[in-house]
Design goal:
By secondary structure, this protein is an alpha/beta fold. The protein has helices at 2-8, 15-39, 41-45, 58-71, 83-92, 109-117, 135-143, 156-168, and strands spanning 49-54, 75-80, 97-101, 103-104, 107-108, 126-130, 148-151. The strands form two sheets. It has a five-stranded parallel β-sheet, sandwiched between helices. It is elongated. The relative contact order is 0.11.
Length: 175
């Protein structure tokens, strides 16, 4: 900035000298930037890790976003409030974990679970959230490929703990 300012406000006869200094500074900056890129190529090529929350209740999605955002700061958290928006996101992105509400405004969450498990996310852990205390529904979700099932109201810290277990490879599903 100082070199650019010196060139901009140069007195007659000093303009070329100041412009030369500015060009040298810019070339040095470019070289430093190129060196930094070469020193850490995997940082540029590495995509952000992502979690998907599919939940139509803004209070619940906000709570999960806050708690999980604190625990998993290196993850991007995306929130979808319908099966339709989730389906679009699932086609465009790769997620390391999905949290799915069973009651969505435009679909039964079990139908969306089937879609997830027959897509490029078939191996992605899916945590189910449900207010329905029905053992048959819970067993159906696990049979369809859900890895965990949480009853509402739930403890978001418990979900965060289970996510940590999944990512560390110490996964003990909590039905």
């Amino acid at each position: 900035s100082a070199a650019a300012k010196a060139a901009e406000y140069a007195q007659e006869g000093e303009f070329l000298k100041n412009l030369t200094v500015l060009i040298t500074v810019l070339q040095d900056q470019r070289a430093e930037s190129a060196e930094a890129t070469l020193a850490a190529p995997d940082m540029q090529d590495q995509e952000a890790r992502s979690l998907l929350i599919i939940e139509d209740d803004p209070d619940i999605s906000s709570l999960l976003n806050h708690v999980l955002g604190q625990k998993f700061q290196d993850f991007q958290i995306e929130i979808c409030d319908s099966a339709r928006s989730a389906t679009l996101s699932l086609k465009e992105n790769i997620y390391e974990l999905i949290i799915l509400d069973l009651v969505l405004p435009d679909s039964d969450g079990r139908e969306l679970l089937k879609i997830i498990k027959h897509s490029n996310h078939k191996d992605t852990p899916v945590f189910i959230l449900s207010a329905m205390n029905n053992r048959t529904i819970q067993e159906d979700c696990i049979r369809q490929g859900a890895s965990h099932f949480f009853m509402k109201p739930f403890d978001p810290e418990e979900i965060a703990h289970e996510i940590e277990s999944v990512f560390s490879g110490n996964d003990n599903p909590a039905p």
